[in-house]
Amino acid sequence: MKRIGVLTSGGDAPGMNAAIRAVVRKALHEGMEVYGVNYGYAGLVAGDIRKLTRRDVGDMIQRGGTFLYSARYPQFATEEGQLKGIEQLKRFGIEGLVVIGGDGSYRGAYALTKHGFPCVGVPGTIDNDIPGTDYTIGFDTTINTVLDALDRIRDTATSHVRTFVIEVMGRDAGDIALWTGVASGAEQIIVPEKGFDITEVADNIREGKEKGKKHSIIILAEGVMGGNEFAEKLDAIDNFHVRVTVLGHVQRGGSPTARDRVLASQFGAKAVDVLKEGQGGVCLGINNEKIIVRDIVETLDNMTHTPNMDLFKLNEEISN
After folding, report:
1. Which residue of 76, 216, 218, 308 has the fewest CB atoms within a 10 Å radius of its CB?
2. What are the backbone angles phi and psi of residue 141, rounded to the nearest 5°?
3. pLDDT value at residue 320
């Protein structure tokens, strides 16, 4: 394989640029050409594709977001859209594609694989919800960003003796809430993977006050419900002086941590190795600190992401 492509798709994640950089630098080192696809699958179908040089990825390792941009493109779920994408790849002489993104991005790579086009999926999403890998690119940066905000909010919560509900990202997975909840010393963590009783939440706040706590921090994953709705349910039980902070898209941005830069570099280089060997239809992951290669069809069809719920139990034991 002498010419490969790379794209980023779905929500951006800190470290995506580091992964693109690794793909480009590793490919050039191996005597291959690399073409970048702008705006994900939308750009692929439109033929918005350009050759990438060493200079294009200079000073990119520390930048958040993705310089190849990203866009939602539901039409790629259709066979017509997929075949148009393959047509553009062939027009540029691209023989294999590195897809960096989350679940939707993997589904696109999965579809191309079923049409016989070699793809390698690289897990890049702040939610850490991709099956077959312990961690995804962007997760470490995000939980550190959230943790910084939580430390600041705790100061205010203590000063005003209030209950704060912090809504964090995590539509289907509670990893961000679990990790930042334990790391921040939050009193309670609410995640999609575990049901909750609002009266028990209220009882826990009261018990904390009886023990002398001056505040209560509740970390809420957005997939459960919105922060304001949750606060209304609490206020309907008692006046807890609830304040809501929705961290929103601030969780996506920022310079990636060392952990994310290294992980992205490992994934990017490995993706090139896999394509150089003539493999396709695979996705990468990290398990027990080792980069692994899995069949993408088997991974998406037979595996699911499971968060570390031991963290939930740990927080229950040490938060009060």
Report:
1. 308
2. -60, -45
3. 76
Q: Which residues are annotated as a binding site for ATP?
A: 11, 72-73, 102-105
Please indicate, yes or no, if residue 15 is contained in any of the structural domains: yes
Which residue numbers belong to the known binding site? 11, 21-25, 72-73, 102-105, 125-127, 154, 162, 169-171, 185-187, 211, 213-215, 222, 243, 249-252
Domain of residue 119: give its range: 3-138+256-302
Same domain, 102 and 180: no
Select which of 12, 48, 59, 127 is catalytic.
Answer: 127
Claim to verify: residue 233 and residue 183 sit in the same structural domain: yes
- Alpha carbon distance 146, 156 (integer Å): 16
Catalytic-residue membership of 197: no
**pTM for this structure?**
0.95
Q: Look up residue 83 and give its two tokens.
A: 């075949």
**CA dihedral for 57, 135, 6, 268, sign (positive or negative):** positive
- Average pLDDT of 202-231? 92
